[in-house]
Amino acid sequence: MTNPDQSIILILGDQLSLNISSLRQGNKTNDIILMAEVAEETTYAAHHKKKFVLVFSAMRHFAEKLRKLGWTVDYVKLGDAGNSGTLEGEIARACDRHNTTNVFLTEPAEWRLREALKHIRTLEDTRFICSHATFNAWANTRKELRMEFFYRDMRKATNLLMNGDEPEGGKWNYDSENRNPAKQDLFTPQPPHFKPDQITQDVITLVQEKFKNNFGDLEPFWFATTAENAEIALTHFFEHVLPHFGETQDAMVEGEYFMHHSILSPYINIGLLNPLEVCRRVEQRYREGHVPLAAAEGFIRQIIGWREYIRGIYWLKMPDYVNVNALSAKRPLPDFYWTGKTQMNCVKQAVKQTKQEAYAHHIQRLMITGNFALLAGLDPKQVHEWYLAVYIDAFEWVELPNTIGMALHADGGLLGSKPYAASGNYINKMSNYCKSCSFNVKKRTEDDACPFNALYWDFIARHFERFRKNPRMAQTCHTYGKFDETEKQAIAKRAASFLDSQISGQY
Ligand code: FAD
Ligand code: SF4
């Protein structure tokens, strides 16, 4: 006999929050929580080893917590006998075990999973602040989908940093006070390190056995895998980093992996921290006088602005978004994205820390590896697959628009009104990478010239007709137009010879 009052609640690896809609609707006395580590989820991207540890360890800890709170949890480990390897298979097996056909879950964050599980009753994911309906209604009223206007609406909707209808301090955005290069005596606090407990240690052993050929260093593993430890990381951020948030947001320093960034995305993305609650507490820190307005506003903008906007764009444009390629970029991803073996010191450093920590901050992702991919015309799909694999916070809903739209301009300008393209000059201004690079950042076309310089102008040349009509690129196109023919040819030759040499592995 099936029990009509009993349901199976499927909880996914990025839904580890007690406040998730499925748990709120569930009934502790009757319902059964299903959590499953399945092979399918380990292979859709070539995940970094640390990402496996984060997600599996956090899932196992969450299952323990639910049991302590009185829930019945049916947890299937990756190596368990009979594990079918797919979520669908595990749902079917659980239905047999518990003699029920009632299953529901909170909406998966990614298109792939929503499609696979669309026959199952789905509740809205209320951890996001802007619903699909609200974002789509906003998008329908706009000619251009610019983040800044979306962000203002979100400020009003959440009442974060508002004085009645006016933004706190009179301005919506204090970015002009931020984004400086790092000072010589810069001190950056390290994020707190958490010693792996037995659960995490077991997962480390599992990953060592099953995924030893995946990208990245497995140990030391120090990320939080419980909400309690994520809360410690958050408090550390409030006390040591938030007061300086934004000041050096775009700066890069060799050997300094975290600068004044929060390192909270891994925890927010899997449910260990609630984004709106984090923002409310940031506002409180400001109102109590602990942090300047520019820092609080800058952080809140990243979450209720960028993070929500990116998610809105993803759902608005999927499933086609993954295939866009407005600049017809076709070059294969060079090996050095995986090995770090390149003489370009900026790229080498970004890949090195990505391999070690599964983390690089936004400007390293956007203006080093992303910028190179944009200028070199790398195939957007291959670049997307790389970003989805190598970062601990990488889930398609957030990674894809950042890569395809923001970094590669492959959506033709939907997400950004101009491409984030830069020559070596920008990298030299914002970092100290060039000081120990074998290329000369001041040179453009010589054999030892910084490759970003010729590649930048070659990129402008290749897309001259498109960008000439873009008001934000017109001046750059005008400058290129004034180069004499000899210089233009030298740029094209240097760009081509460099790109050929990286395919042959010479750099
Ligand atoms: P902070 O700099 O401290 O920012 C605070 C928070 O704001 C972050 O934790 C994050 O939740 C949010 N945030 C800031 N910028 C963005 C943004 N552009 N999009 C969404 N949220 C944002 N972020 C991911 O979470 N997962 C990804 O897979 C991912 N891939 C990216 C790929 C590329 C090519 C680029 C350019 C950016 C990508 N980002 C991604 C966005 C951003 O780089 C990371 O959110 C950020 O680096 C995370 O580190 P942090 O927590 O220290 O962020
Ligand atoms: Fe990168 Fe060019 Fe600077 Fe070298 S000189 S670190 S390649 S920007």
What would you note in describing this structure?
This protein has helices at residues 21-25, 39-43, 49-68, 87-98, 111-116, 132-140, 147-158, 198-210, 227-241, 265-270, 275-287, 293-317, 336-339, 345-357, 362-376, 380-390, 396-407, 424-430, 451-462, 464-468, 474-482, 485-503; strands at 8-10, 32-36, 72-76, 103-106, 121-123, 162-163, 166-167. With 507 residues, it is mainly α. The protein folds into three domains: 8-123, HUPs (Rossmann fold, 3-Layer(aba) Sandwich), CATH 3.40.50; 132-195 and 213-317, Serine Threonine Protein Phosphatase 5, Tetratricopeptide repeat, CATH 1.25.40; 336-504, DNA Cyclobutane Dipyrimidine Photolyase, subunit A, domain 3, CATH 1.10.579. Helix 3 runs antiparallel to helix 8 (198-210). It starts with 7 loop residues before the first strand and ends with a helix. The mean pLDDT is 95. Bound molecules: flavin-adenine dinucleotide and iron/sulfur cluster (SF4). Flavin-adenine dinucleotide binds at residues 261-265, 268-269, 299, 302-303, 306-307, 310, 361-362, 365-366, 370, 387, 391, 393-394, 398-399, 402-403, 406-407.
